[in-house]
Design goal:
Blueprint lengths: L7 H16 L4 E2 L1 H10 L4 H8 L4 H13 L12 E2 L1 H16 L7 H8 L5 H8 L4 H12 L9 H10 L4
Parallel strand pairs: 1-2
Helix pairs in contact: 1-2, 2-4, 2-7, 4-7, 5-6, 6-8
């Protein structure tokens, strides 16, 4: 897994996932932390995609909050967190999805799609909100209109385009 192949926003979400794990006193960074970071995003990328895909973003947020709350806590540790193998599987899957889609970089929406594909509690949370990888893929394709993630700041371009009709 090459972090240089992830967009700036994707790397920001990965950093946020690690911060959530530390704040919650979890020893491992797991896919649930990553989904929570995506759902907590103030720009609403994941929530908007979930809603576009016919899912219920508030139900996903509620389910992932419950999943994170159930994770084992370790107090008195040195604050060091480790990446769980399930997280590596999700990020590897995101890279494969992005490559298959013709993306040079892994954008946040491909991570969301990978979370819906790899069998983890994060996938369960997405399923609780009636989200599937197929529906997400359709919503992503609709949003992008054929554009690919060809730079580390790729999300900025199509998000700006998405917002412009509302202005």
């Amino acid at each position: 897994m090459n972090m240089e192949k992830f967009t700036e926003r994707s790397r920001g979400f990965l950093q946020a996932a690690q911060t959530i794990a530390i704040r919650e006193e979890n020893q491992r960074v797991v896919p649930e932390h990553l989904l929570k970071a995506l759902m907590d995003d103030d720009q609403g990328l994941a929530s908007n995609l979930i809603n576009r895909a016919g899912g219920d973003a508030s139900r996903v947020a509620e389910a992932v909050d419950q999943a994170v709350a159930k994770l084992p806590r370790v107090s008195g540790a040195d604050g060091q967190v480790y990446v769980d193998p399930s997280m590596v599987r999700v990020l590897d899957e995101a890279e494969k999805i992005a490559k298959k889609a013709g993306d040079s970089f892994v954008p946040a929406e491909r991570i969301l799609m990978a979370l819906a594909m790899v069998n983890t509690r994060a996938k369960d949370a997405l399923e609780a909100g009636a989200v599937t990888a197929q529906k997400l893929n359709s919503a992503i394709n609709d949003l992008r209109k054929g554009r690919t993630a060809d730079s580390a700041s790729a999300e900025d371009g199509y998000e700006a385009l998405k917002k412009s009709p509302a202005t």
